């Protein structure tokens, strides 16, 4: 049975198998080597993620296969960083609790699968003007429910937790802002990703996975490749 990578996160993960999505790109990249499985929950923060973890990753998930996932990406923070005095305050999680929740999520995953690689992904930067154009709920204040400054604080907290636990982190907040016009090039509504934004996540995740030894070069291919078949005796490829 092929090994798996689980993608655990909020709407940016839930949408990752859309056209050009970073999850779909991972599945294509690891075709014939790894099954990429999405567990994304739109609107969720780390507090809610902890509430559902036992259902998302039940104890009997891998029963019969004997296989723990090769890796799990944990991509939360964009909703935790909603401001507590704006229209999406119900999604807000204080910064110290966010860090505690990330530690708990990682701890639960490592307790279940000690050998699996855990990869944290910071929230992306926020284009505040874009958020005003695409409010999720009625916004009577006419102020963005998220700010880039707040997202940056949660990104730094995510990086700090990764350093503390010794696990890799994709610093998406910093990476995206290294490019001109990132607000429109990488974000379609000030928060969610364009095709180009998804490409950055894909490339960064592949690089971090390679850093822990998960790469095409290190993985066996599922079933014989046609390129390995002898045209005069193709069945011979199935003998081993």
Q: Keywords, please?
A:
single chain; 240 residues; alpha/beta; 5-stranded parallel β-sheet; 9 helices; 5 strands; 38% helix; globular
Task: Describe the structure in your own words.
It is a single chain. The chain is an alpha/beta fold and 240 residues long. It is 38% helix and 10% strand. A 5-stranded parallel sheet has the order 2-1-3-4-5, sandwiched between helices. α2 crosses α9, α3 packs parallel to α4 and α4 runs parallel beside α6. The mean pLDDT is 92.
Low-pLDDT stretches are none
The average pLDDT is 92
Task: Tell me the structural class.
Answer: alpha/beta
Rg value: 19 Å
Give the distance, in angstroms, between the N- and C-terminal Cα atoms: 16 Å
Strand content: 5-15%
- Tally the helices: what do you get? 9
Approximate helicity band: 25-40%
| Strand elements, count | 5
Order of H and E elements:
EHHEHEHEHHEHHH
């Amino acid at each position: 049975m092929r090994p798996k990578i689980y993608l655990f996160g909020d709407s940016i993960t839930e949408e990752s198998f859309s056209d050009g999505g970073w999850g779909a790109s991972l599945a294509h990249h690891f075709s014939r080597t790894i099954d990429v499985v999405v567990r994304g929950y739109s609107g969720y923060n780390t507090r809610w993620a902890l509430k559902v973890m036992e259902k998302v990753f039940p104890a009997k998930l891998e029963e019969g296969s004997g296989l723990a996932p090769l890796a799990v990406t944990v991509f939360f923070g964009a909703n935790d960083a909603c401001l507590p005095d704006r229209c999406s305050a119900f999604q807000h999680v204080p910064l110290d609790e966010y860090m505690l929740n990330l530690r708990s999520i990682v701890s639960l995953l490592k307790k279940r699968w000690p050998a699996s690689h855990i990869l944290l992904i910071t929230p992306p930067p926020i284009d505040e003007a874009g958020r005003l154009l695409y409010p999720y709920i009625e916004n009577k204040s006419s102020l963005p429910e998220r700010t880039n400054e707040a997202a940056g604080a949660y990104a730094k907290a995510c990086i700090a937790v990764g350093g503390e636990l010794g696990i890799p982190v994709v610093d998406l907040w910093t990476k995206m802002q290294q490019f001109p016009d990132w607000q429109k090039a990488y974000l379609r509504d000030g928060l969610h990703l364009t095709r180009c934004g998804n490409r950055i996540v894909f490339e960064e995740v592949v690089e971090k996975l390679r850093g822990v030894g998960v790469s095409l070069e290190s993985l066996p291919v599922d079933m014989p490749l046609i390129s390995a078949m002898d045209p005069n005796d193709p069945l011979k490829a199935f003998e081993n």
